[in-house]
Write a structure and sequence with these properties.
The protein is mainly α. The protein is built from 8 helices and no strands.
């Protein structure tokens, strides 16, 4: 038994690597019109955002009790701060929106939640910033899937 097509699109959009960049083309392959593909992908991509924003810090703090996880989080946070510190410190939530909106690997909602955590962007600012970034990325991916935008 397989999942209905609309559920598989939402699941793919909710996953950290594919997100809506994989879900929108998948939806169109399943015959969904561009607007439906966009809406299903955005819904799926936003599903993990609130839990991630709320639980990323407590879960990472818990895991940091273990040496290997502590080493991993130190590496991740140091790397993220080194690569994006100036950008996020200067522009804050606007930078977060733009970061999520760029439809490239490792720039989606999941990474945006991690960046919000690393740079201390409050939930009340991070959620709308990530929402806006997902909406913009969805438009870009939809237009690209239709052959209107070419990168």
């Amino acid at each position: 038994m397989s999942l209905p097509d609309w559920i598989s699109v939402i699941v793919v959009a909710a996953m950290p690597i594919s997100e809506l960049r994989g879900a929108i083309p998948l939806a169109m392959l399943h015959g969904f019109d561009p607007l439906t593909a966009y809406m299903l992908a955005v819904i799926g991509n936003l599903m993990p955002v609130v839990p991630l924003l709320l639980w990323l810090e407590p879960v990472s703090n818990y895991l940091r009790r273990y040496k290997s996880w502590d080493k991993f989080f130190n590496w991740l946070f140091t790397r993220t701060r080194r690569m994006h510190s100036e950008y996020f410190e200067k522009y804050g939530a606007i930078a977060l929106s733009l970061f999520v909106a760029i439809p490239l690997p490792v720039t989606g909602a999941w990474t945006g939640c991690a960046a919000a955590f690393v740079f201390g962007i409050k939930f009340s600012h991070a959620l709308p910033a990530i929402l806006l970034g997902v909406l913009i990325a969805g438009v870009v991916v939809t237009l690209t899937s239709l052959g209107i935008l070419i990168f």
